[in-house]
Each structure stands twice: as C-alpha cells, then as structure tokens.
Amino acid sequence: MKILKLILAILVCELAGIIGSVFTVNAIPNWYNSLEKPFLSPPNWIFGPVWTTLYLMMGISLFLVWKNKTKTALTLFFVQLVLNSVWSIIFFGLQSPGIAFGELLILWVFILLTIISFYKISKPAAFLLIPYILWVSFAGYLNFAIWQGNISRPVACTMEARLCPDGSAVGRVGPNCEFAPCPED
Known about the structure:
It is a single chain. The chain has about 180 residues and is mostly helical. The chain folds into two domains: about 1-150, Ferritin; about 155-185, no CATH class. Helices cover about 65% and strands about 5% of the residues. The protein is built from seven helices and three strands. It has helices at about 1-25, 25-30, 45-65, 70-95, 95-120, 125-130, 130-150; strands spanning about 160-165, 170-175, 180. Helix 5 runs antiparallel to helix 7. The N and C termini lie far apart (about 75 Å).
C-alpha cells in the first residue's frame, strides 16, 4: 500500500508538470525564443530534466507527509502545486511575464510556507523541497529579467502592404501589427 501511495504522490506532482508543459511546448519556438533573455539564462533543453526531477522530489516529499494526514501541510502543498501550473499558463499560455512574475512571488511564499509546515512533520520532506524553492527563486530572476527586458521591445511586423484607393500603400504597424490607415481614412 505504501508503494502505491508513493507512486500516486509522484504522479500527482508530475501531472502538474504535464499541465504546465501543455502551455509551454508550443510557446517556446513561437514566442519564448524571440524574447530578450538575461545573461544567466540556461539553454531550453535544461528545463525539462530539472522540472521532472523537482516534481519527483516533490512527490516523495508529499508522500512523507501524506502518511501523517496533516490537513494544513497538505493544503499548503496542493495550493503551491496549483500555483506552479498556473504560472506556466500565465507566462507561456497568456505570454504575460509581468503577471506571471506577480504570481510567481505568491508561489514562492506558498513554497516557503509548505517547507516550514513539512519541517514540523518530516525534516526529510522539507529538505526535499529546498532545491525546488531555489529553482523557483532562479526562475523568478529569469521571469523578472525577461519581463523588464521585453517591455519596450518593438514589435516586428511583416513587410506586406495594403493598397489604398489613392494608389499609395501602407504597411503594418502598432502592437498588433494592424495596417496603418490610408491617407484618406
């Protein structure tokens, strides 16, 4: 029975990663790769193995506390797990680094509260979450730097033009790459 609980705890945590990856996978080549990134940005390939390992450690940590059935600790854990998935939806799905950074700050607080709560029940469970909070701290640096580094970034619109009734042509402009108005508009 213990092994089934351990497997279930790990699967629940890995599922949070799968939910986040649904919003991440397509956004990396289509949006994320076009952003200005800070000096310490790791290569994209590193994120998958790191997060998979962190979710595994989170699952083991959850298992160590789950057997004690402490409602507060488990609630804190599941709140931070949901916030973890929501961050990917905001950052990659909505492509909103500023809002994602604010959400990440809340996530960080809930991870810290979870560590403190777990420490009272199982020191190993708390220690297993230390790499997670450190990685999320680093992710906070990346998130903030990406947000700030891309605020006033000009939009690259296509070079296509629209022919106006007077024979002139206008190109695409603005944050949504809409066509500029014709001279008589």
